[in-house]
Amino acid sequence: MQNPKSRPRMVKVIYVFCAVNGLSAVFFGGLMMLFPVNTPLGLGALLPAMTNFPFQMFFETLFWSGLALALCNGVCNLIAAGFFVGKRDLPALKFALAAGFLLILWDTYEFIFLPNFLAAVYGLLGVAQVVMCIILLRWQTQPGAGKNTIQL
Are 73 and 22 in contact (CB under 8 A)? Predict the structure, then answer.
């Protein structure tokens, strides 16, 4: 039986999702901005495949993709993770929900124009994040729920 003062395991899972997704998005987005043509991890090999993307002017180098990755996926997830650390679950869940939707949009776009295994995996992680956030937000809005932390 769960200790009534402890946070649900699902909150901890979403926190890990947000922290890992946020840190990796900022790291890889930063690499893409610093090395927009030849990144140290070989991401420059994606440039020829990205010529089929809509808004081609933004995909001549990896800079704009890196900026979007760092800002949309990275920052939103890291803000959510920060709120989770501060035990402010309600705003954390709202940011995590937004980050999950952004991750789904990002990976759907990528999967349509550049199908790959990682886009599918991250897209499913985004779906899992959104579903868990919705479940916890529904519990949070029930009568008698705590103000800033999830009470089940």
Answer: yes
pTM of the model: 0.81
| Residues 6 or more apart whose Cβ sits within 8 Å of residue 44 | 35, 37, 38, 62
122: DSSP letter: H
> Which residue do the tokens 């890196």 mark?
66
What's the pLDDT tens digit per position in 17-56? 999 999 999 999 999 899 888 777 777 777 777 777 777 7
Do the Cβ atoms of 148 and 83 come closer than 8 Å?
Answer: no
Which residues are within 8 A (CB) of 99 and not within 5 positions of it... i.e. 6 or more apart? 18, 21, 22, 73, 76, 77, 80, 129
Token couple for 39: 């990144």
Helix axes 89-113 and 76-85, enclosed angle (nearest 10): 150
